[in-house]
Amino acid sequence: MAEASHQNSPDPYAAAGVDTAAGDVAVELMKTAVRRTHGPEVLGGVGGFAGLFDASALRDFERPLLATSTDGVGTKVAIAQAIDKHDTVGLDLVGMVVDDIVVVGAKPLFMTDYIACGKLVPERIADIVAGIARGCAETGTALVGGETAEHPGLLGPNDYDIAGAATGVVEASRILGAQRVRAGDAVLAVESSGLHSNGYSLVRHIVAGRGIRYADRAPDLGVNGATWGEALLEPTRLYTTPLLALAAEHGDALHALSHVTGGGIAANLARVLPAGTWVDVDRSTWSPPPVFRILAEAGDLDLTDTEGTWNLGIGFLVVIDEAVADAAASALTAGGLPAWRVGTVRGDARPEGDYEQGAKGVDGGAVRLVGGYRADAPATDGAK
After folding, report:
1. Mean pLDDT across the chain, nearest whole number?
2. What Pfam families does this protein's entry cite (predicted)?
3. Do 169 and 182 have their domain in common?
4. Count: domains in the chain
5. Is the pLDDT assigned to residue 267 strictly greater than 70?
6. Same domain, 303 and 330
7. Within 10 Å of residue 351's Cβ, how many Cβ atoms?
8. Which of 46, 132, 136, 174 is most deeply packed, by most CB within 10 A?
9. Cβ(166)–Cβ(107) under 8 Å?
10. Are residues 110 and 253 in the same domain?
11. What is the CA radius of gyration of the chain?
């Protein structure tokens, strides 16, 4: 009788605010999306303690180097929570993580994710993971595992944060970076899809200061028919597949890539240049999209004030041999990634000026932005 009484008593973990049954429902809802990212290299299914990936293909490499990166989406998730729209932040997560390992020329192999929430709502978690799975499928990355943790009392019922980690592989002789860069190399910009996932603390500060509601219509932000919240959730563009194709096509001519994330254009380019080199990035080669102009104006800021925070329309920078620069820009543009020249790597005496000298602990090259932005011409006009 004592045993029966115990079995019928309330679940003490549920009474503490953790619903393990809801977690099981969430896993069932996300299974199909996750399985779509699995090729024959993935062993086992969803729900194991660890994901398994068959690395036999690495035997074909002469000297395989594993590349790994981890990141989150930052306070962009606060906007997703505010408008109860969660199907795009997963794409942002893939962009922030997977495209970082592409910078060294690595092909992504697999990814894992972590979601912490105040209350586990299965449909919400499934939406987030479905977005991650879509991004993984687009970039050829297997989503091999993840974790959803319920933290009542630490996070509010509608609060969550997401993070992920990815692993890729590159042949040692093919690794991209500052060691390949030479004076005379062309620097190409590749268009962003908007804010991506950086600088949202400033975005939210501006929006709150102006009394803008996320449900308000935003006809000028560049997303047709969208509200402010929907426009600000425009997902991060994924560059993995076209940039790896560029590396395969141009071989030794492609020298370095830079993912324009936190820190802006100058700081991120400086990280992939060798010490002693410098680049003047010409602002007149592109026009920052409306979302940047409108937010800067709403915050009583000049666009130049935001250069260390937002990407201002450039998601990636490509450092490539001058001889193939035009062909590379044309190929990227034709493939749906508008690309254009913004500068040239120099190795002579640097002019006086306010340069970003390396970044994130890297003693790299020096970069500054010069000139004025184009008023209204689209960035695609800059492709040569």
Report:
1. 88
2. AIRS, AIRS_C
3. no
4. 2
5. yes
6. yes
7. 11
8. 136
9. no
10. no
11. 23
